[in-house]
Design goal:
The chain is mainly beta and about 625 residues long. The protein has 7 helices and 39 strands. The protein has 4 domains: about 150 residues, no CATH class; about 140 residues, no CATH class; about 110 residues, no CATH class; about 170 residues, no CATH class. About 15% of the residues lie in helices and about 60% in strands. The N and C termini lie far apart (about 160 Å).
Length: about 625
């Protein structure tokens, strides 16, 4: 036993002395040849290097300057770098694997095809690649710095790692997109990849952000795009396709999105100098969706110019909150076509629209049939519509409907506490409203300086006054309606001097082919709950004194025959002639839906005729009597 103990002690001493001698040799000029001899003896490779750095104070690490690893069989260079250092992890290598504490490589070209030449059991706790380059068909970078923790040589293309991953390069190309000044600071834990910071510059602007990627879900904590100039190009199409593929493969949630000084010109859409901030934006299968917890998405933006189709908005400013059940607009304002101005604030739900304020100033609006249909459909989506404060000034509105063209020049409206739609019924159910204009054309009848004032108090709607000025006359009217009563009783009073007689055919759709002027005095009342209520209740009187009257008759129609078509629903598009006639005073009375026309004298070329009529709105029957003298 003593012999064996002495022998074992001698072997340990000899091993320690030999190892010490080896370490001493490594720190001398003979260190590099010794390493080269060991590599060529124990591996199928040979090693070349300019020099070797070794320090006895760190005995498990060494560094090589300008190293080159060559395959002995065919003299092929496998690896070449400007500098390489390794530090062995003894304890992790006791199981027979090659475990390195750290590896630092500088100025190398990465070739993934040569990864297979590395030991399959190789692992590196800290891998640093400085000033390295890589190039493939779709991916390339140069002068990059890479740091990876716990890297292992696996069958994966780039191996696998757990822990920190840091990457920076002055230039990276991916699928034709060139990114410059790329910085990435991240950490991979199991299947969770935390991107603490990402930034790069591209032809579409500068990007910074942070994110978490886990289980096909991407949570963007913050994403910023700044100084972007976006135009239609092949690179934009490729980027859009890449984003479309990414957004379909991953569910994307964005906690905060910022766009700073972004401009774009794509097809019929132009955007200049947009600044936007959004919170809680979610994408699923490439489509916008709401968060599972029904959280509001906050959005604010401003832009120098937004041009879509024929709409031009400048100095745009908006702040809003969006959720599945409500859109809250804190503020929106914009110049329109460099002359007009619009601003509003309020809330919108699927069933109601409530604007705290609405301001329109200096606009020129042309509401064509398609736009009118679209606006009408959106309007009817709401059960209730409110406007707390309404201000419209110096606005022009044109509705080029061939059946009923309408134009207002210099429109001014001022309203307060307006309820314009209630329980899916249009009307003015609450509030105060005044309106005026410089001029108007209502179905080809010119009106100057129209004015109206109305209000609703305790359920009573009042119009007082309504004033319309025509080319040679004027109309003044007032009206009331009890909105709190389901029967909707209403009254109307009006007086007019030299009113154009054509207003009845142009505005009310009556077949009354008369032109000229007339004085008017009317007072009627009825129930407006429905058509039957109106028919049973219409009561009142109308008195008119015509002046300079002419009647339109067909080419093959006599004066007497033309008189019998008055007030009927008959419509004729044939050519018509005008005949001057003298008309006496018109008196029409209504009593609970029964309408009477008192005998009316008409004279044409000394031919005198008398008209009288009776109609019953309840039965729908009636007739017009005609006698000649």
């Amino acid at each position: 036993m003593r012999f064996l103990a002495k022998l074992l002690a001698s072997l340990v001493i000899i091993t320690i002395v030999a190892l010490g001698a080896l370490l001493i040799v490594l720190s001398t000029n003979y260190g590099l040849p010794l390493v080269q001899k060991a590599v060529s003896t124990f591996t199928p490779y040979s090693l070349r290097a300019e020099s070797l750095d070794y320090d006895l104070l760190t005995p498990l690490s060494l560094a090589l300057h300008e190293p080159e690893l060559i395959e002995q069989e065919n003299e092929t260079t496998i690896y070449r770098a400007g500098y390489a250092s390794i530090a062995l992890s003894v304890w992790d290598s006791l199981d027979g694997s090659l475990a390195l504490q750290s590896v630092v490589v500088r100025r190398a070209n990465i070739d993934l095809a040569d990864k297979a030449a590395l030991p399959t059991s190789l692992s590196v706790k800290h891998l640093a690649l400085d000033d390295v380059a890589y190039q493939s068909n779709s991916f390339a970078f140069d002068h990059a710095d890479i740091q990876v923790s716990n890297w292992r040589n696996t069958e994966d293309k780039w191996g696998s790692w757990q822990g920190q991953f840091q990457f920076s390069t002055p230039s990276l190309s991916i699928d034709g997109q060139t990114l410059s000044n790329l910085l990435l600071d991240s950490e991979l834990t199991d299947e969770k990849w935390e991107i603490w910071g990402l930034s790069f510059n591209s032809e579409f602007g500068n990007v910074t952000g942070s994110a978490t990627v886990e289980n096909k879900e991407v949570l963007l904590h913050q994403l910023t795009l700044s100084d972007a100039r976006i135009e239609r190009s092949s690179n934009l199409a490729n980027l859009t396709a890449m984003w479309g593929s990414l957004s379909k493969d991953y569910d994307i949630a964005i906690n905060r999105l910022d766009l700073l000084d972004v401009s774009a010109s794509v097809d019929d859409f132009t955007l200049e100098h947009l600044n936007l901030s959004a919170q809680s934006v979610n994408l699923r299968n490439g489509e916008l969706v709401w968060a599972a917890n029904d959280a509001s998405s906050l959005l604010s933006f401003n832009a120098n110019l937004i041009n879509y189709d024929t709409w031009l908005m400048t100095d745009v400013l908006a702040e809003m909150s969006l959720s599945p059940s409500r859109i809250e607009v804190g503020a929106f304002s914009s110049k329109i076509d460099d002359e007009g101005y619009i601003s509003f604030a309020g809330d919108m739900t699927p069933a109601s629209l409530s604007l705290r304020s609405l301001v329109l100033n200096g606009l020129t609006l042309e509401v064509e049939s398609e736009l009118s249909t679209t606006l009408s459909s959106h309007w009817k989506r709401f059960d209730n519509i409110r406007v707390g404060s309404l201000s419209v000034r110096h606005t022009n509105v044109t509705m080029p409907d061939p059946a009923f063209p309408f134009q207002v020049i210099g429109l001014n409206l001022k309203g307060k506490d307006l309820l314009l739609r209630q329980a899916s019924h249009d009307g003015m159910w609450l509030g105060q409203l005044t309106g005026s204009a410089k001029a108007a054309s209502i179905n080809r009848i010119l009106v100057s300086s129209p004015y109206a004032a109305m209000k609703v108090e305790e359920g009573i709607w009042q119009l007082d006054p309504l004033s319309l000025t025509f080319q040679q006359g004027q109309l003044a009217a007032k009206a009331t309606a009890n909105l709190s009563n389901p029967s909707r009783p209403w009254t109307l009073e009006g007086t007019g001097l030299s009113l154009p007689t054509s207003i009845y055919s142009h505005w009310l759709g009556l077949n009354l082919p008369l032109d000229g002027e007339h004085d008017l005095d009317v007072k009627v009342s009825a129930l407006g709950g429905d058509g039957d209520s109106l028919a049973y209740s219409l009561t009142g009187a109308l008195k008119a004194t015509p002046h300079s009257t002419v009647i339109q008759v067909g080419e093959d129609e006599s004066f007497s025959q033309s008189l019998m078509t008055l007030f009927s629903d008959k419509r004729e598009n044939a050519e018509r002639n005008t005949l001057p006639i003298s008309v006496g005073e018109v008196n029409i009375t209504a009593d609970r839906g029964r309408i009477s026309l008192a005998p009316l004298s008409l004279v044409h070329e000394e031919k005198r005729s008398t008209l009288s009529g009776q109609w019953d709105l309840v039965t729908g029957g009636g007739n017009l009597s005609h006698t000649n003298r």
